[in-house]
Amino acid sequence: MAGTRLNGGIALVTGASSGTGKDVCFALAVAGVEAILLADLNLPTDLTRQECQKFASHSNFRALSLMVDVTDEASVDNMVQRAVSELGRIDYCVHSAGLCCGPSPMPCRCKSHTRTPARGAT
């Protein structure tokens, strides 16, 4: 996104507490989004939110943190409802949450490894 300018817009980013999701949040803040909903199952997104504030180029930038489990439809519905109720709409959606359903020391909580994590996601 280097050099990309966005004139506002509302972003929702899953997996926002680390890795690619965190980097996408920073890039969106620099590019000029008006707001980001940082969603992650692990909730150290407050640090990401604070760092986004430092990078933000939009004068009215806002960032909200929300705990969400992308394998739980009710949690995803709540995430979308909160984004719309608190930010008005969603213009950009980045699904960067890691979802591992292969051999793992932790059992997979999703119904099927082929299940789409969020309704409507492709």
Describe what this molecule looks like in 3D.
InterPro entries: NAD(P)-bd_dom_sf, SDR_fam. GO terms for molecular function: oxidoreductase activity, acting on the CH-OH group of donors, NAD or NADP as acceptor. This protein has 122 residues and is α/β, with parallel strands linked by helices. The chain has one domain: 3-Layer(aba) Sandwich (Rossmann fold), CATH 3.40.50. 32% of the residues lie in helices and 17% in strands. The protein has a 4-stranded parallel beta sheet with strand order 3-2-1-4, sandwiched between helices. Strand 2, helix 2 (45-55) and strand 3 (62-67) form a beta-alpha-beta unit. Helix 1 (19-31) runs parallel beside helix 2. The longest helix has 15 residues, at 73-87. It is globular, with a radius of gyration of 14 Å. Mean pLDDT is 82; it is low at 112-122.
Beta-strand proportion: 15-25%
Average pLDDT reading? 82
| CATH homologous superfamily classification | NAD(P)-binding Rossmann-like Domain
Overall shape: globular
By CATH, the topology is Rossmann fold
**H/E element string?**
EHEHEHE
Helix content: 25-40%
Question: Describe the biggest sheet?
Answer: 4 strands, parallel
Terminal residue distance = 21 Å
Integer tally of domains? 1
Question: Judging by the overall fold, what is the CATH architecture?
Answer: 3-Layer(aba) Sandwich
Taking pLDDT < 50 over at least 5 consecutive residues as the criterion, the unreliable ranges are 112-122
- How many strand segments? 4
How large is the radius of gyration? 14 Å
Q: Can you identify the CATH class?
A: Alpha Beta
Helix/strand structural class: alpha/beta
Output the number of helix runs.
Answer: 3
Strands of the largest sheet, in order across it? 3-2-1-4
Keywords: NADP
GO molecular function, one term: oxidoreductase activity, acting on the CH-OH group of donors, NAD or NADP as acceptor
Family: Belongs to the short-chain dehydrogenases/reductases (SDR) family.
InterPro entries: NAD(P)-bd_dom_sf, SDR_fam
